[in-house]
Amino acid sequence: MTDPQVGATPRVALRGLSKTFGTTEVLREVDLEVAAGEVVCVIGASGSGKSTMLRCINLLEEPTSGRVEIDGIDLTARRTDIDAIRTRVGMVFQQFNLFPHMSALRNVAIALRKVKGLGKAESERIARERLAEVGLAGKAKHRPAQLSGGQQQRVAIARALAMDPDVMLFDEVTSALDPELVKGVLAVMTDLAERGMTMVVVTHEMGFAREVADRVVFVDEGRVIEDRPPAELFGDPRSPRLREFLEQVL
Amino acid sequence: MEQITRLLFDPDIILGTLPALLAEGLLNTLYLSFSGFGLGFLVGLVLALMGISRRWWVRLPAKVWIDLFRGLPAILVIIYVYFGFTLSGARIFEQRSSYAILALTLIASAYIAEILRAGIQSIDKGQMEAARSVGMGYLQAMWLVIIPQGIRRVLPPLTNELIALIKDSSLVFVIGMSVGDRELFRIGQQVVQEQGNLSALTAAGLMYVAITVPLTRVINWMDTRLREGKPIAADEDVPQAAKRPLGGR
Ligand SMILES: Nc1ncnc2c1ncn2[C@@H]1O[C@H](COP(=O)(O)OP(=O)(O)O)[C@@H](O)[C@H]1O
Ligand SMILES: [Mg+2]
């Protein structure tokens, strides 16, 4: 939501990124730049490669060819410490993936303690702050199974935020939620965007993309077909595939 | 009929053997089997992690180890370990019971490795991804996130394995423990040889049952909790390996 710093090194850059599973080409020469503070929404049909693209950004998937850069650092280079980079890239998953054997507080605190090496008191203090930010100050002691889907997803967001990342990746984070719980999660994400977080958001929530995104990227069959500000992309879709897609979802 | 009763249930012999069974045999049986299980668990955990490695040369030694010690009769492993070391002059331990524990460790490690591997592999892939995405390394994620959940899922078969090992510990009689170090079976067996009457083994057998039945109850209780989705594992089904019937070997 803040003005992208024109000319600066992009926070995230995908350069000629390709990914094949066996013989299936899932991503084909994807180029994408996300400036610091920018919010980019990624839309496209199911199976078009959105998740794979997002998962390449923190190397949960290894690209077949091409490069992934965070602040100009090539993640695919052999000597890059990927664990260190991952602390700077937060990820939120469709299925939450909270650690079910830990309380909400410990879910958020554990990486602070075990990855960043902070003390118990310090990591719990930060974890409580993050939980409060997503509106769950009162749920610190709860296990994931004792929380609603929407609350679990907000804990997952707090867990990613705890590491104080430079970028946040969201993969259809409201798709597994009951409709009445979607709003709360989107509100947290909107708030985050307004505070200047760099975000890449794979979503089916066209309202969110229209209102919060600086740019919307339409992916089809592993290619970026359109990459434009939301008002333009939704108001004047150029490619027939995008028009087709929008007719189906809107 | 009366003869058979006398042969198996002579009250004088049973009562006469009981003090030694309780004071010496029970303690040694528990010592041997719990030590074997504990050490076997540690080795089994390493084997389980090796078994899911992407590298074949890490998987291969684990597979050979597991196949070997699951494939050999327990008594053969015990004989090889004890007589193999002592007769070849490689007296690595002073006490016979240490050889017994080593043998039981080898046996337990193979079974436990397979149980733990099944438990670990039953955990949703998203757990590892979430752990890695906050910056944990592979082994750190395993240790903090995957293994604790995986073990919970396989508590029933692990307990089952403990029961099997307690029973297998009777086979260390072949080592010929001396008085003070004898476990339940050897004490019973020696009395049988002296008296030509099986009642002492009946007494020993009752002791095994007294240990294993409560453990079986614990398994059933855990199984119920797992099936009803209570705290042990809230979300997913117990993996196939965990459903092995009691007395799986
Ligand atoms: N691990 C995998 N192995 C094989 N094929 C995969 C794997 N992950 C994704 N795919 C395939 O890649 C394509 C794109 O998947 P994905 O990136 O999940 O799409 P989207 O998120 O847009 O729905 C799909 O055809 C899917 O089946
Ligand atoms: Mg997807």
Folded structure, characterized:
The complex is a heterodimer of chains A (250) and B (249). Chain A has 250 residues and is of the alpha/beta class. Helices cover 36% and strands 24% of the residues of chain A. Chain A is built from nine helices and ten strands. In chain A, the strands form two sheets. Chain A has a six-stranded mixed beta sheet with strand order 6-7-8-3-9-10, with helices on both faces. In chain A, strands 2-1-4-5 form a four-stranded antiparallel beta sheet. Chain A is globular, with a radius of gyration of 18 Å. Chain B is mainly alpha-helical and 249 residues long. Chain B contains ten helices and no strands. The radius of gyration of chain B is 21 Å and the shape is globular. The interface between A and B is medium-sized, with 28 and 21 residues.
How much β-strand is present in the residues of chain B? under 5%
Distinct compounds present: adenosine-5'-diphosphate, magnesium ion
**Rg of chain A (CA only):** 18 Å
The chain-level structural class of chain B is: mainly alpha
